[in-house]
Amino acid sequence: MTIRSLVPLPVRRHFRDLSAGYSTLRLIAGMWEDQGFTPSGDPNDETSERRGFWREFEDNVDWTDPTHVNRVLRVYETLIDAMPPEALVSTRKFMERQGFDVDLEGRISPKSDSALPAAATMPRALTALRDPEMILDSFERINRALPSDPAQAIGSAKELVEATAKTVLEELGISFDGKTAKLPQLIDRAQRELGLHPQTVAPGPDGSQAVKRILGGLSGIALGLGELRNEGWGTGHAARRTGLRPRHGYLAVGAAHTWCQVILDTLADPAAPWRAQAGVTAR
Question: Full-prediction pTM beyond 0.85?
Answer without folding.
Answer: no
